[in-house]
Amino acid sequence: MDSILKTLKRTPLFDGLEDEYLNTIASIAQKRACTKGEIIFNEGEPGNGFYVIEAGNVKIFKISFGGKEQILHIYGPGKPFGEVPVFIGKNFPASAIALSNSDLIFLPRKDFIALLTDNPSLSLNMLAVLSMRLHQFTVMVENLALKEVPARLASYIIVLAEEKKNSQTTQKISQTTQQSNQAGQKNRNESSPHGSRTAQHNNQTHLHQKTIKTAPPVVTLPVSKNQLAGLLGTTPETISRVFAKFSTDQIIEVDRNIITIIDMEQLVEASQQ
User: Fold this and answer.
1) What is the DSSP code (8-state) at residue 219?
2) Side by side, which strands form the sheet with 252-255?
3) Which residue in 6, 11, 108, 235 has its CB near the most CB atoms, within 10 A?
4) Which of 240, 13, 210, 221 is CA-nearest to residue 126?
5) Residues near 245 by Cβ (< 8 Å), separated by ≥ 6?
6) Which of 165, 157, 158, 128 is closest to 17 using CA atoms?
7) 146, 168, 196 - which closes a domain
């Protein structure tokens, strides 16, 4: 139960929910383990619930009539998938496969719908997540139809940077309550002579920190280059060439799966070409 709660708390779908509701959601959750290459569900199967990834990576994909695979999403820990059928009560619109040994949390549709009726906040979170997914699909269609590979890759790196920034912002917000609880004690300390010296030291430290140059954004590729190529509708060789070109132009630095964004302006410009 503890590991389920920990995963639910870092899932955007359940962001901001009180522990009481999280405990209720955890009570209907079922843990499932999948091995690498195991099909979680196939397109067309009944959507009897959705999943949250506790550990591992999952690929969402469709197969065309000609047998060509189109990767729609690749998700990692804390990400939900398969939510759409929860609302519309239909079959899964795509297939899902474990890219590595994965631990999943399954939430049955019937039980989850009952929770939605009792919790408007959860309904709003669900709507926000689905709206974000719709935006992602729109961007993906635009990229595949209108943009060349360098623009697709640049857009993908920017999305990773934005997701990391949003995640860090959420973590900072979650710390606000703890900081406010300590505020009273801090104020009392600062009212004393010793506290005044402490406050002065803190202010000096803050001013010093302001002079430090902001470090460039660093993101981690959650997938291999082969998988990234499938996600962007190209080949691994082309992806490698574009990475090399971006590095030569000093837009990014690449160290295996770690990408340092040196020039965000140029990266944004590349994404719009």
Assistant:
1) E
2) 218-220, 258-261, 252-255
3) 11
4) 13
5) 150
6) 128
7) 146
Which tops the pLDDT comparison, 210 or 93? 93
Full DSSP string of 110-124:
HHHHHHHHH-HHHHH
Q: Is residue 6 domain-shared with residue 139, that is, in the same domain? A: yes
Number of helical H runs and strand E runs in the chain:
10, 11
CA 42/CA 97 separation, integer angstroms: 9
Q: What is the pLDDT of residue 83?
A: 83
d(CA 244, CA 153): 12
- In this structure, the answer to whether residues 164 and 106 fall within a common structural domain is no
**Considering the entire predicted model, what is its pTM?**
0.66
Residue indicated by tokens 């959750």:
29
3-state secondary structure labels for all residues of 50-77: EEEEEECCEEEEEECCCCCEEEEEEECC
Say yes or no: 142 and 18 in one domain. Answer: yes
User: Whole domain around residue 243: which residue ranges?
Assistant: 150-271
Domain count, the chain: 2
